[in-house]
Design brief:
242 residues; alpha/beta; five-stranded mixed beta sheet; 7 helices
């Protein structure tokens, strides 16, 4: 898959696999190209950001469109751009569909976005058009993208009650972690975090990815299994769990 990732500001992670660190909150979006399908992991913090991603992806893939979206967790900086990808099949951890479908929770996402610096009009637009997952993952779900299969795994609770990771097999497996792992700062534990279960979620993540995988945090630079294991220990100490 001959894609010039860097020309569009993306980082190549493996053949047909790349990611972009978005401005503002340094949130990562991931892209996996198959022969028949294109999978996007997270969609950005606004409809405008989602539309920019859509244009970039069409450019770097020669006009292909996103067919599948996997949402790492229901926080505004990871889900507000989804409506820009009309027709895509949207996946999330079980329960995220209900949360994103409830008016009070949608409004709470918008309020958080505004507190974090998103304009009120942009936040309201994103809330009004918010796309909840149609397909929910309670354990593991294998997707065939054509010439490659990827695995969606629900390893929650941890950073939230609805954490979905993406594993892409290859010479070195690539694991998109969402905000279960953060490199550019201490992992953020908001009111929807489940601190007592977060270390267990990282144990499951490490078992799925293994020692040689490339781990892609929700924010920050790519890391390895040693970094994830160290962060797991730090979280266990921080939250006084084993």
């Amino acid at each position: 898959m001959d894609v010039d990732w860097e020309a569009y500001g993306w980082e190549r992670l493996a053949d047909g696999v790349g990611r972009r660190r978005l401005p503002g909150w340094d949130a990562t979006v991931g892209l996996v190209l198959g022969e028949r399908a294109v999978l996007l992991y997270d969609t950005g913090s606004s409809l405008a950001e989602g539309a920019e991603l859509r244009t970039q992806i069409a450019g770097l893939t020669g006009g292909r469109t996103v067919t599948h979206i996997a949402l790492s967790h229901p926080h505004f900086d990871h889900v507000f751009g989804t409506a820009a990808f009309a027709g895509a099949e949207v996946f999330g951890a079980v329960g995220s569909d209900e949360l994103m479908g409830r008016v009070r929770d949608r409004e709470a996402l918008g309020e958080d976005a505004v507190r974090q610096g998103v304009g009120e009009a942009a936040a309201a637009e994103a809330v009004d058009s918010l796309v909840a997952p149609r397909h929910t993952v309670s354990g593991e779900w294998t997707l065939d993208l054509g010439g490659r299969q990827v695995l969606l795994a629900n390893v929650s609770p941890g950073h939230t009650g609805h954490d979905l990771v993406l594993l892409v097999p290859g010479e070195r497996e690539v694991v998109f972690c969402g905000d279960l792992v953060e490199e550019s700062g201490e992992p953020q534990a908001g009111p929807d975090a489940v601190p007592s279960r977060w270390p267990d979620a990282l144990d499951r993540l490490l078992r799925l990815g293994g020692e040689d995988a490339v781990y892609v945090p929700g924010h920050g630079a790519v890391v390895d299994a040693t970094f994830v294991r160290t962060q797991r220990g730090e979280l266990a100490t921080r939250f006084a769990v084993s």
